């Protein structure tokens, strides 16, 4: 009996040893696969789908798992190296700014210095139309009598830029079948440029010292429209809590020089959007975050905000059954410093910034058309944006 047990143990040891050897050989000579979505996060690639689609053309390099494209890691590395090689050897990509966004000129060499984007050349010289790889049109300045009259080269991309919400910009009947790419604040744009962003700290201390506060709730507004939901909410809220108001609507204009000091001196700032649309989250949110103030937001649902910023960085009016309940919560936070400080824990690891309109759109648009050569037409722009 003891001999039989000993033989069993010996057989088990042999099996285990063989499994170990097989595993070593398997992982040495077989390249594991990775989910395309996971590689997108690691590599920072702008288009995971491009890599998946291109890899599908290569034999024995892909498989489908739970309807997800899974690509051999070697294929992805090779494809990324090919894209980088093309980027380095191609001549400069030329982007023609047909009309200056918001009629504000900026340094045409800003892509390299501000965004570390290389191989892009911006110009406003319309005589370069035929050689430009892309042309940027800002919706607010589009006029039918000020559009290109020359035939568009087949390789040329026309980029439609708009940062106003559908409620604040009127559609043009001639926009359909005209553009190749869209550059807006919306996540479903080809070139998505938000009004601001939260990004990781690149070093230094994780501690955050909040600015001194001598005001409870503040609001700066210059666009007064009694039909706006924000005006109606404000009228109710002010019945229950004191609000310091500024801007042309209150005959208390705030200069650019004084703006940051004013906002940072408030415990809470009413980040109320003038219209409510998905992804329409403007500098009204990002400026208070940047200057150390808790934004109280009125706009799209909380879920949409949390796609851009941490959920504990702001207060949403929808979290409360009434303006009175919101006011009571703000008063509670005013009296309890430890509760108030919880709205700044995200500052230990992140910083907030706002977008420099015009330059950022132009640079990212130029970089996009440099990297992605796919043919595309935006057939029904009016329906997509204003429906």
TrEMBL record:
This is Fucosyltransferase. It comes from Cirrhinus mrigala. Its EC number is 2.4.1.-. It is an enzyme of class 2 (transferase). Keywords: Disulfide bond, Glycoprotein, Glycosyltransferase, Golgi apparatus, Lipid metabolism, Membrane, Signal-anchor, Transferase, Transmembrane, Transmembrane helix. GO terms for cellular component: Golgi cisterna membrane. It catalyses: alpha-D-galactosyl-(1->3)-beta-D-galactosyl-(1->4)-N-acetyl-beta-D-glucosaminyl-(1->3)-beta-D-galactosyl-(1->4)-beta-D-glucosyl-(1<->1')-ceramide + GDP-beta-L-fucose = a neolactoside IV(3)-alpha-Gal,III(3)-alpha-Fuc-nLc4Cer + GDP + H(+); a beta-D-galactosyl-(1->4)-N-acetyl-beta-D-glucosaminyl derivative + GDP-beta-L-fucose = a beta-D-galactosyl-(1->4)-[alpha-L-fucosyl-(1->3)]-N-acetyl-beta-D-glucosaminyl derivative + GDP + H(+); beta-D-Gal-(1->4)-beta-D-GlcNAc-(1->3)-beta-D-Gal-(1->4)-D-Glc + GDP-beta-L-fucose = beta-D-Gal-(1->4)-[alpha-L-Fuc-(1->3)]-beta-D-GlcNAc-(1->3)-beta-D-Gal-(1->4)-D-Glc + GDP + H(+); an alpha-Neu5Ac-(2->3)-beta-D-Gal-(1->4)-beta-D-GlcNAc-(1->3)-beta-D-Gal-(1->4)-beta-D-GlcNAc derivative + GDP-beta-L-fucose = an alpha-Neu5Ac-(2->3)-beta-D-Gal-(1->4)-beta-D-GlcNAc-(1->3)-beta-D-Gal-(1->4)-[alpha-L-Fuc-(1->3)]-beta-D-GlcNAc derivative + GDP + H(+). It is found in: Golgi apparatus, Golgi stack membrane; Golgi apparatus, trans-Golgi network membrane. It is a single-pass type II membrane protein. Residues 211-384 form the Fucosyltransferase C-terminal domain. The keyword Secreted does not apply. GO terms for molecular function: 4-galactosyl-N-acetylglucosaminide 3-alpha-L-fucosyltransferase activity. The keyword Glycoprotein applies. Belongs to the glycosyltransferase 10 family. The chain crosses the membrane at residues 12-30. Gene3D superfamilies: Glycosyl transferase family 10, C-terminal domain. Homodimer. GO terms for biological process: lipid metabolic process.
């Amino acid at each position: 009996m003891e001999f039989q047990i000993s033989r069993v143990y010996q057989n088990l040891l042999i099996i285990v040893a063989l499994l170990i050897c097989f595993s070593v050989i398997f992982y040495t000579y077989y390249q594991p696969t990775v989910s395309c979505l996971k590689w997108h996060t690691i590599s920072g690639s702008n288009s995971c789908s491009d890599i998946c689609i291109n890899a599908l053309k290569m034999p024995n390099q892909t498989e489908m798992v739970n309807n997800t494209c899974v690509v051999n890691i070697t294929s992805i590395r090779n494809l990324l190296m090919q894209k980088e090689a093309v980027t380095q050897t191609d001549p400069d990509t030329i982007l023609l700014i047909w009309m200056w966004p918001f009629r504000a000129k900026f340094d045409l060499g800003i892509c390299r210095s501000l965004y570390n984007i290389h191989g892009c050349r911006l110009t406003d010289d319309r005589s370069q139309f035929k050689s430009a790889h892309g042309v940027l049109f800002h919706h607010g300045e589009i006029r039918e009598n000020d559009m290109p009259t020359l035939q568009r080269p087949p390789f040329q991309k026309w980029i439609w830029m708009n940062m106003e919400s559908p409620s604040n910009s009127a559609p043009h009947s001639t926009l359909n079948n005209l553009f190749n790419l869209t550059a807006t604040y919306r996540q479903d744009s080809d070139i998505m440029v938000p009004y601001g962003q939260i990004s990781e700290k690149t070093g230094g201390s994780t501690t955050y010292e909040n600015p001194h506060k001598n005001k409870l709730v503040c609001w700066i507004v210059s666009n007064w429209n009694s039909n706006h939901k924000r005006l109606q909410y404000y009228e109710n809220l002010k019945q229950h809590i004191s609000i310091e108001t500024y801007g042309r609507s209150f005959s208390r204009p705030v200069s650019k020089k004084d703006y940051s000091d004013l906002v940072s001196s408030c415990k809470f700032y009413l980040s109320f959007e003038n219209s409510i649309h998905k992804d329409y989250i403007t500098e009204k949110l990002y400026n208070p975050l940047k200057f150390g103030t808790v934004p109280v937001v009125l706009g799209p649902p909380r879920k949409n905000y949390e796609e851009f910023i941490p959920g504990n960085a702001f207060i949403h009016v929808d979290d409360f059954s009434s303006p009175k309940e919101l006011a009571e919560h703000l008063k509670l936070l005013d009296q309890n410093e430890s509760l108030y400080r919880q709205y700044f824990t995200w500052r230990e690891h992140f910083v907030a910034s706002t977008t420099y309109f015009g330059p950022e759109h132009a640079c990212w648009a130029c970089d996009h058309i440099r990297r992605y050569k796919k043919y595309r037409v935006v057939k029904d722009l009016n329906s997509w944006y204003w429906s």
